[in-house]
Structures are given as C-alpha cells and as structure tokens.
Design brief:
Helix content is about 45%, strand content about 15%. The protein starts with a helix and ends in an 11-residue tail after the last helix. The protein has an eight-stranded parallel barrel with strand order 1-2-3-4-5-6-7-8. It is globular, with a radius of gyration of 18 Å. The protein contains eleven helices and eight strands. The chain is an alpha/beta fold. Helix 9 runs antiparallel to helix 10. Strand 4, helix 5 and strand 5 form a beta-alpha-beta unit. It has one domain: TIM Barrel (Alpha-Beta Barrel). Bound molecules: flavin-adenine dinucleotide. The site of flavin-adenine dinucleotide has 23 residues, from strand 3, strand 4, helix 5 and helix 6.
Length: about 300
C-alpha cells in the first residue's frame, strides 16, 4: 500500500530500507530476495536510488514499481537534477505517478562518471532546492531531501551548506534523510541546529551496516564521514576475517542506533546494499524499540 511519506511520521519510531538497482541477473535475484525478506518485517518504506546521469533510470523504475505494485509497500523513488530538463523531470514524475509511486527523494545528484563537476542541464535545475520547488508545484508527491550532518563535500563553508538545506526545506520538503555517519555527536549537533532553525519536519538518520573494511574506506572517502576511534580499531582488528567484521559491524550499528534512540532520534533509514540478513539482525537486537516490526 503506497502511502504518502507525511502520513508515515505519525508513529513514534520509524524504519526504512534503501536499495539500488542491480546491474546483473545475480544482483537482481539478490535484490528481490532481500525485498521479500525485509518486506515481511513491515518497514515504513523502501527507497530506490537513481544512478548518476540517469544511467539506471529504467532499472530504478522497475524496482520502484515492483515494490509498489508487487510487494505493495510504500516506495520513495530517488530523483536527481543530472541530465534532465524541466520537461523530462515532469515526464519522470508522471511516469512515477502512473506506476503508483507517490514519494520522491529529490537530489541534485553527483556528476556522471568522467565528469568532475555537476553541470546544470539547459532548462534544468542547478540545486536540489529548485527541484523540490518544481516537484511541489507540479505534482502531489511526498518529498524527502538529503541532509549532511558533517556538511556536503562540495561546500567547505558548513554554515552556508546548512543554509542551503534550509532552502530545500522551505521549498516544500516533508522530511530529511541523512548521509551515513558513524559519529553520533555529528547527528545530535545537526538535529539541534535544525530545531534551533525552527525546522519541524522529521529527521531520518541514515544507518550504514558495516560488513567489510575495504567497503568502509571507499564509503568514507566518498562521504567524508568521520570514523570514531572505536570503529577504526575494530576495522583494523577484524579486516582479515569477513565473519568477524560483519559481527563487529552489526554490534556497532546496534550500539549506534541505541544511543541515537536514547538521545531522541526516532527515525532510521538503513543503507542495505541490497542485502537483508545484517539489517535484519541489527533490528532484531533492537526489536523492543520498534514494536511495529515483525520477525517471524
Ligand atoms: C540519503 C541520500 C540519498 C542519495 N541518493 C542518491 C541517488 O539516488 N543518486 C545520486 O546520484 N546521488 C544520490 N545521493 C548523493 C547526492 O546526489 C550528492 O551528495 C550530491 O552531490 C548532492 O545532492 P543534494 O541533493 O544534497 O544537493 P544540494 O542540496 O543541491 O547541494 C549540493 C551542493 O550545492 C550547494 N548548494 C545548494 N544550494 C546552493 C545555492 N543556492 N547556491 C550555492 N550553492 C548551493 C550545497 O551546499 C552542496 O554543497 C544521495 C545522498 C543522500 C544523502
């Protein structure tokens, strides 16, 4: 059942899962298995990423449509400003609506491979705030936006960057999903700044379950996330044993979410990497905080 995102935030706690469109048949098998397992847990929504430059447009739509119409869960389709003019964005919104999808995560997007900088498409959008305004004016979509607790990598001026987040919110966003982070102080500080600025829409903490050492170096290089000492030591200790590394990552996420819950953060978005077991294990250990989740 595809609900509007703003209808979902009436609950005390909330859990959602992110997927990306797979490139191979094996990847496709894995994502559908994971969707089936995680759907049974009764999360609030699933989201599907949109590849740089629209490279995954068809596959993203396929997965988002399958989630909505076959799995019958609420789906948030990511959409970006990359390579699309206003008419093309309008067409994409209509196509999403046709498939029954009524929520988007509106992003500027990263430049496609081989390009170092984002280039505004002719008659398109330069920033996510412009896209949010356009979607608000041209559709009935529930709209989420991205937030960066440690600041966005392209903008060294953190205050200016935070100001641009407020522009996206003022343009009509219904909620914020954060970039992954491992240091909870960054999130608590971000939450405080939002509340001080008078922001009332929900803040959804992006949780990345760590399953390998090499993955974490790649991800932190891309996101610029701070690695707390405890995490650094764990990665060094367990990087040669995939099983121990995954167990450490699971325990770390359980501790991270517990501390966030105790600090008043109630909404969580898991970057599943199209896998289900580790996210399920994490949430199983946290089940007393999430009474609406199923584990049978
Ligand atoms: C939860 C989440 C999901 C994501 N999913 C995807 C995905 O599916 N596909 C994908 O390609 N990428 C995805 N990304 C990555 C995202 O597209 C990149 O981080 C991108 O570089 C910025 O997108 P944004 O929407 O935050 O941009 P914006 O909010 O537009 O900000 C981009 C940069 O421009 C600056 N800025 C904003 N407004 C102005 C202004 N008016 N004047 C001057 N500077 C300004 C900001 O400070 C920032 O540095 C995701 C990120 C997150 C956190």
């Amino acid at each position: 059942m595809n609900k509007h995102i703003y209808d979902l935030f009436k609950y005390d706690t909330h859990v959602s899962f992110e997927f990306f469109p797979p490139k191979t048949n094996q990847g496709r098998k894995q994502i559908y298995q994971s969707i089936a397992r995680l759907k049974n847990m009764n999360p609030d929504f699933f989201s599907v990423t949109y590849g740089a430059g629209g490279t995954t447009a068809e596959r993203s739509l396929e997965i988002a449509s399958a989630l909505t119409n076959l799995a019958q869960v609420t789906c948030v389709a990511h959409i970006t400003c990359v390579g699309m003019n206003r008419d093309e964005v309008k067409n994409l919104l209509q196509s999403l609506e046709f498939h029954g999808i009524s929520n988007v995560l509106a992003l500027r997007g990263d430049p496609p491979q081989g390009q170092t900088e984002f280039i505004k498409p002719e008659n398109g959008f330069a920033y996510a705030s412009e896209l949010v305004r356009f979607i608000r004016e041209n559709s009935n979509m529930g709209i989420l936006v991205a937030g960066y607790p440690e600041g966005h990598k392209d903008n060294p001026d953190k205050k200016d960057d935070f100001g641009h987040l407020l522009e996206k919110i003022n343009a009509g966003a219904n909620g914020i999903i954060t970039q992954l982070f491992f240091d909870n102080h960054c999130l608590f500080d971000f939450d405080k700044r939002l509340r001080q600025a008078g922001v009332e829409i929900p803040l959804i903490a992006g949780i990345f379950p760590i399953s390998s050492g090499s993955q974490i170096s790649r991800i932190t290089e891309l996101s610029g996330a701070t690695i707390p000492q405890e995490l650094r030591k764990g990665i060094e200790k367990y990087c040669d044993s995939p099983e121990d590394m995954e167990k450490f990552g699971t325990d770390f996420a359980v501790r991270q979410v517990t501390e966030l819950l105790k600090g008043g953060i109630n909404h969580f978005h898991f970057y599943t990497m199209n896998r289900h077991q580790q996210t399920r294990n994490i949430l199983y250990q946290l089940r007393r905080y999430f009474p609406r989740l199923n584990f049978w």
